[in-house]
Automatic annotation (TrEMBL):
It comes from Truncatella angustata. It comes from the Eukaryota. Residues 244-269 are annotated as: Disordered. Keywords: Acyltransferase, Membrane, Transferase, Transmembrane, Transmembrane helix. The chain crosses the membrane at residues 21-42, 54-75, 96-118, 144-161, 187-205. It holds the Pfam family Acyl_transf_3. This is Acyltransferase 3. The lineage of its organism: Eukaryota, Fungi, Dikarya, Ascomycota, Pezizomycotina. One of its GO terms (molecular function) is acyltransferase activity, transferring groups other than amino-acyl groups.
Amino acid sequence: MATSNNIISLRRHDMDNLRTFLTGLVTVHHTSIAYGGSGGWLVKSAAVVGTSPLVTGFNMFNQSFFMGLFFWISGRVSAQSLEKTTDYGAFLKNKALRLGIPAVAYTLVVNPIAYLMVLPSLDLESISICLRHYYTNLDGVRGAVWYTVTLLCFDAIAVLVKKASQHQQHKASRADKVAKYGDLKNYGWLAVVLCSFLVKTQYPVGTFLPIIRLQPAYAFQYVYAYTLGYLAYTAGEQTMNGPFDSTTTATKAKESHDGEGSAEPMSSGSIPLSTALMISLMSMCLIPGPRYLDSTDWLSETMKQAFGGWTLPSFLYAFWNELAFNLLGPALMSYFNQWHNAPATSFTWNARYSYATFLVHTPVCVAIECLVEKILMSSAVLNVLRGSPNWQNLGPMVMTAAVGLTSAWVSAVVGKTLLEWLPVLKKLI
């Protein structure tokens, strides 16, 4: 997610724009939890009763690909950086500076602000109790920076593997690298399905590792995605290539005099984005257990079964999650390579600010959600909405779209403003 020129030596406009899109999607995804989605969040809207099937489906759909794509891009960027340097200590120092320090600062300063926002009263005693509880129960990073800390761990492992490979007598040829990459992209996802299912029997969705706060239920996809991105660079691939692609999606990188460039669009064998979306959404219907469909509480029962345990829905969810990632990942990259392969011209939606946007989006989302709740609670609108069957079906998606898109835009503005007002932050983010 970090986009500094010190990290990326060759800018790829298509990947920059994809990363910006994914950052906005993360913001909307987290906003949706307040309006009937699954997962933990500081705000639960009074305008929504219980869990919304549509919003929960939206959560699961996003989860299947957006963080995996972040790790794929990060793996490729790290492979490129490691190829261009022999000073691995400097590489890790730079990564620690740009990934580790922001994670610590976020955990100690930014995240507690969001907790204070949801307090019913901001008197000194309430603030003191809240902060004392937060810091005394702190056992690692908190919030969205689990991604940056996990990425830092992956980069450190990549350096160790890189150094170990240099001492091998037999150096892998380009053909060997291409073959290894081909095997991983074609068959690796099936191993991820099996490993994810087995891990969920002991660590269901919603269980976190200490310190880095990574969910074991999704960890294998992230390892797979990072490794696939890393090997894609060594194999000469410029975009993600999945097991369902008919031909190679390799593209030729063009580099300009200022160090920026784009991947020259070429014919791609990736499944069209519209087809990938249709298959992913329709196949999601396979997850619910048939015996729960006639239950009034079928959604919670299905989620309980799908998120962990030795159950068929748990296996089907693991299979669908990786199927969707390997359909949507290549399709999205191909789409951005073909249609969004130029420098961003938006005032706020720019890759230079996407990392800052990511770091500030939680308190921004919570602030806007709290404001919306105060408006609803102070009017008669809330009672009308809660009593409407149509609202209970469609309202959660309406609120997710309206509040989520607003939060995404405001987060981008705040991130951009912070970088411009505090230039010292540019050394970190």
